Amino acid sequence: MVKFAYLTCPVTKSKNKIKLMDKISNILKEYDYTPFKPNTSLTAKKLFKRDTYCLSKSSLIVGEFTFPSHGVGFETGFAFMNDIPVIALVEKKAKLSRMIKGNPKIKIIKYSSENQALKKLRNLLHTM
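Given the sequence above, the corresponding structure tokens read:
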């Protein structure tokens, strides 16, 4: 059975996080997930249609939550309403929403460096 993982990050304000998504995608493949990565080239309507479809097929969502984002918030709410677990990566210095912190379905990974984030993600995926 194919396991899909949806990757998300705030693409409008932090394009550098998209590179991190590529590294996360490679890790997810090691754990037999087929990742859906962010696509910034679609129109708003096509993006909504594609992403809600991909979200509905996913068994895991992995996101970068360092910067606030309407899109990431929407996707997290979608996950909550559809019982999809979420892994939230967030830089230690960032202020995280209490709605995210208080959501029992979200596993939060705080990190100081990209390497630390990837190592902690591997460790968490190993336990799932």
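The mean pLDDT is 89. Try to locate this feature in the token string yourself.
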